Amino acid sequence: MRSPDRREEQVRRLLAGPHPPVPTGLAAAAAARGDRLVRRRRALRRIGWVLLFAAAAAFAVWASLARPWEIPPSEVSPPLQGW
């Protein structure tokens, strides 16, 4: 037998062989776990967006009050000329 034929025969034996019993609540438990994961991811995504918008609003308020684009006034007066 060639190698691919042997592998195909092994797969056929595994598929045709006796299958172990599946627990009765397995599908319901898997669906419940999937539902919890989806709700958790959705909540985390919403929290992330809220935090992003809050940070953007805080930055806008800070920028409007601090005006970092303006040159600060000089604290040293220019030299007196003409004396």
Automatic annotation (TrEMBL):
Residues 1-12 have a biased composition (Basic and acidic residues). The keyword Transmembrane helix applies. Keywords: Membrane, Transmembrane, Transmembrane helix. It comes from the Bacteria. Residues 1-20 are annotated as: Disordered. The chain crosses the membrane at residues 47-65. This is Uncharacterized protein. It comes from Streptomyces globosus.
